[in-house]
Amino acid sequence: MASNSFGILFRFTTWGESHGPCVGVVLDGIPSDFPLDLDLVQRDLDKRKPGTSKLVSGRKEPDQLKVLSGLYEGRTTGAPLTFTFQNSDAQKDDYEKIRELFRPGHADFTYRQKYRNRDPYGGGRSSARETIGRVVAGSVASQYLAKWGIRVQGRVSRVGSVLEDQEKMMQEVLLAKQDGDSIGGQVEVQATGVPAGVGEPIYEKLDARLAYALMSINAVKAVEIGDGVEVVAKRGSRNNDQMGSEGFKTNHCGGILGGISTGEPIIARITLKPTPSIFKTQETLSTSGEEAEIQLRGRHDPCVAYRAVVVAEAMMAQVLLDMILMSRALQGNQQKFFLESEEEASQRESI
Fold first, then answer.
1. Fewer CB in 10 Å around end: N or C, the chain?
2. Could you count the other beta carbons within 10 Å of the beta carbon of residue 321?
3. What count of other Cβ atoms lies within 10 Å of the Cβ of residue 292?
C-alpha cells in the first residue's frame, strides 16, 4: 500500500487499522519554533470522536493524543511530529462471523482483489478511523493559518432531501437509525481571510488540490467548488462574478479563478453517501465466491456527515497551508515574502 501520505511541503502520513492496537499520524514540513497548542488539537479531535450523541457511532474511544516526537517545551522543532492514539474500544467479535463475507457498500471486495490479504475487522485500513490523523494535521495547519487571519469552518448543510433546517435534518437521521438504515448528507466548508494569489497552476491549482483532498475523505462521492453543479443551469451573464471598485460583487466561483484564490471566501461542499453499515439483511458474496446473506452487528454512524465536518475542515486547512508554503518557497528570492509577518521579515533580514 503505497499511498498513505498527503501534501507537498506540509505533508502527513497516517497509519494503523480500525481494530488494531493503535492508530497515528506523522506530520512533516511544519515550520520550526512554532508554539503548538495541544489543547486546541484535542478540541478538534473531540469533534470527530464517536460515542458523543445518538447521531453518531456508539463506539467509545477517548481519542486522547500522545506526542512521540517533534515537540520541545511546547514548540515545534522542525522534526517530524508524531501522534498516536490507542484503540481502546475495538470489538472484533462483531466481525468474526462475517469475516469471509463482503459487506455491500464497503471496500472489502476491492481491498481483497488488490491486496489479497486484508484486515477484516472494522474495515481495517479503509475504516474512517484513519481520519483521526487528518484531523490532527488540519488542526496543526489551522493554528498556523490563524496567525495570518485565515479561518476554516464547516457545517452540515443537507441530510437526505432536507436543506439547512438542523432540527429536521437530525430527525431524518434518527428515523433512518430506527429503521436499521442510514442516510446521506452534505457538508459545506468555508475558508475566510485567504488572500488573493494562493494556488499554483497549471497542475497544482487550488481548486484541483481541494477537490483531491476532499474527495479522499471516506464516503465522499462528489465535491463542489462555489456554485458547483448549479452552474449548468446558468448563463455566463449570471454566473460571472462582476467587479467594482470595492472588489467582487458576487462569489459564484467559490473564491477561486484559474486555480488561484481571489481573496473572497473559499467555499466547497462534499456529498457523502449513506453509511454502508446498516442492520438490514443484504445479499452478498463470500470470499470463495458463494452467494450469501449478511446481517451486520456493531456500532455505526447512521449519517457520516456529522463527524465528517471537522475532517473536511482539516483537509481544507492542510491544503491551504501547503499551498501558502509553496507560494512562500517560490517567492523566496523576492524582497517581499508571501503572507510574511513583520516578525518573520525582521528575522529574515537579520540572518
1. C
2. 26
3. 14
Is the distance from CB of 23 to CB of 129 less than 8 angstroms?
Answer: yes
User: 130 by DSSP, 3-state: which?
Assistant: helix
Tens digits of residue pLDDT in 121-173 = 878 889 889 999 999 999 999 999 999 999 999 999 999 999 989 999 999 99
If 0-12 CB within 10 Å is exposed, 13-18 middle and 19+ buried, where does residue 297 land?
middle
Architecture of domain 5-332: 4-Layer Sandwich (3.60)
Instruction: Look at the pTM and tell me if it is higher than 0.90.
Output: yes
Give the three cell numbers for residue 293: 446473506
Report residue 218 as a C-alpha cell. 471516506
d(CA 140, CA 152): 12
CA-based end-to-end distance of the chain:
43
- Is 218:131 a contact under the CB 8 Å cutoff? yes
Q: Which spans in the chain are helix H?
A: 38-48, 93-96, 108-115, 131-146, 166-178, 206-215, 236-239, 305-330, 342-350
Which whole number is the average pLDDT over 74-98? 87
Angle at 281 between CA 280 and CA 287, to 5 degrees: 125
Residue with cell 475504516: 127
How far is Cα 206 from Cα 253, in angstroms, rounded to an integer? 12
pLDDT confidence band for 95 (50 / 70 / 90): confident
* pLDDT above 50 for 335: no
CA distance 299 to 136: 24
C-alpha grid cell, residue 321: 497551508
Read off the pLDDT of each residue in 88-112 and give the average, rounded to a whole number: 86
Please state, in angstroms and rounded to a whole number, the distance separating the CA atoms of residues 259 and 322: 15
